[in-house]
Amino acid sequence: FTDAFIDFMIVGGMPESVKSFIKTGNYSKSSDVKKEILDTCLNDINRYNKGLDIIKTSECFKCIPMQLADTNNKFIYSRVSGMKGRAAYNRYAENLFWIKEAGYGNFCYATDGPILPLAAHTDRNNFKIYLSDTGLLVQMYGKETAKAIFLKETNYNNGAIVENVVAECLMKAGYVPRYYRKTNGSNRMELDFVLEMGMGICVIEVKSEKKRDAPSIEKVSKVFNIGRRVMLENGNISVDDDGIEHYPLFVAAFMKDLEPEWDGPEF
Description:
With about 270 residues, this protein is an alpha/beta fold. About 45% of the residues lie in helices and about 20% in strands. It is built from ten helices and eight strands. The strands form two sheets. The protein has a six-stranded mixed sheet with strand order 3-4-5-6-8-7. A two-stranded antiparallel sheet has the order 1-2. The longest helix is centred in the N-terminal third of the chain and has 22 residues.
């Protein structure tokens, strides 16, 4: 399963890319297809935008990989072209939401607290943007990134790829994940994904490296009423003494199967 999930990260889920890989067993053939798909994305931007919006939307789209790789990987308007503050927002906000509505980007909004219902605690001014297909993100980073994923190279910073593929899996499963970040005070913590699972809150920490210390997920249940804490990592299945559930990364594709069964009426 882990090897299949690595293939999925590199090849992505676009049908033609998958067909090419299955037919040839060759990553480079899949890469050729993904390059054509990215060209099609840019052509769509040219076709459905007008005037200066063509350039601005293209700038936003091409900027997503860089923003995800940054330590603070929430999307910051000023990083697109260096324009500061409100001027950057005014320049690019509509173009970003074109990318969202076109289906090229998955927006993950911040929450002001992992509290039910999450829809009532969503901060729509802060968000991350993940590409809707992780294979396309790998293509944008280049072949050295694909090699590092294939080799399971932990010294190569693949955190953005791993986080993107988890976001992709969660959203395809029907979840609307958020993230939580508190940068000051005694209860500072960063939670990669916060989602409603069953009748409770589940927080997910994603680890792409061997280092597994996760102070945020260890302390979150002392501050908030959290139903489940899950670590997705390069490891096996276990539950530690603190009650944190540990799973291999590929389990991101099967989170719905971890939900408790509901025997009440359908809603």
